[in-house]
């Protein structure tokens, strides 16, 4: 699918990997809707790329429908959905105090990272399936953002790894499910990237993390994530695939 002229939705588009993806889509000519719970940041990014900002909580169906309606009114129905929104967590299942990890933390992470991504995907797909097919019968492209933690999660990452592993496990069956509608589904599992959150760590810690990556021995660039996300759209034979983007990194237990 050609990106130029297409309406695109980017969740978590106000910062980090989502922002980089929104900017790259706009650079390639897409009409981009920046969906984020941080409305002020979404407005800032959307204003800089000529897009539209939509305040959106992906775990809330009414919020998602309102965002989809607002984006469609401005740009037309979306053919591209980039699921990048997510949250992290690190809690040992038995804490140093001997108490079990709070169940609420596990539920919160899975609710945002997995259920939220599924929620907006089902609503987007139902709308996209009604669009006229493009060349080759294609109607849309949907992307999930997992993590290398889906495969080699570290100590304390039960909730995060489970949520990202769920996205990995959902990729192929959803691609098979949506094949009849001409909607492709792919997932990126990024490693260590130079996002604002990671850059808040002390410089020695950042350097140590970068040194753990076989090659290139540096943190990933958000632009590299965005380039792969956009390649999913352009390459019509990519479907049902999960690609690690990590410089051959395999995470240690801790």
Please, could you describe this protein's structure?
This protein has 254 residues and is an alpha/beta fold. The protein has a single domain, classed as Rossmann fold (3-Layer(aba) Sandwich). 45% of the residues lie in helices and 15% in strands. The protein has helices at residues 16-27, 39-49, 61-75, 103-128, 149-152, 158-178, 196-199, 203-211, 222-234, and strands at 7-11, 31-36, 52-55, 80-83, 140-145, 183-190, 241-245. It has a seven-stranded parallel sheet, with helices on both faces. Helix 1 packs across helix 9 (222-234), helix 3 runs parallel beside helix 4 (103-128) and helix 4 (103-128) packs parallel to helix 6 (158-178). The longest helix is centred in the middle third of the chain and has 26 residues, at 103-128. The radius of gyration is 18 Å and the shape is globular. It starts with 6 loop residues before the first strand and ends in a 9-residue tail after the last strand. The model has no long low-confidence stretch (mean pLDDT 96).
């Amino acid at each position: 699918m050609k990106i130029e002229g297409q309406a695109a939705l980017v969740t978590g588009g106000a910062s980090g990997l989502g922002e980089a993806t929104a900017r790259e889509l706009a650079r390639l000519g897409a009409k981009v809707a920046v969906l984020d719970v941080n409305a002020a940041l979404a407005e800032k990014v959307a204003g800089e790329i000529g897009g539209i900002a939509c305040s959106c909580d992906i775990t809330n169906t009414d919020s998602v429908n309102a965002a989809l309606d607002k984006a469609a009114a401005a740009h037309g129905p979306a053919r591209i959905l980039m699921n990048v929104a997510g949250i992290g967590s690190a809690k040992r299942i038995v804490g140093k105090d001997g108490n079990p990890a709070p169940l609420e933390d596990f539920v919160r992470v899975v609710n945002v990272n997995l259920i939220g991504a599924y929620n907006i995907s089902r609503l987007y797909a139902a709308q996209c399936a009604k669009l006229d097919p493009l060349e080759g019968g294609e109607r849309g492209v949907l992307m999930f953002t997992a993590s290398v933690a889906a495969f080699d999660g570290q100590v304390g990452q039960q909730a995060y790894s489970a949520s990202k592993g769920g996205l990995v496990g959902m990729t192929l069956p959803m691609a098979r499910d949506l094949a009849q509608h001409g909607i492709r589904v792919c997932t990126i599992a990024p490693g260590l990237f130079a996002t604002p959150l990671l850059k808040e760590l002390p410089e020695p810690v950042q350097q140590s993390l970068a040194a753990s990556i076989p090659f290139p021995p540096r943190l990933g660039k958000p632009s590299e994530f965005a380039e792969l996300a956009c390649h999913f759209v352009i390459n019509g034979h990519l479907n049902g695939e999960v690609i690690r983007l990590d410089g051959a990194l395999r995470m240690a237990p801790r």
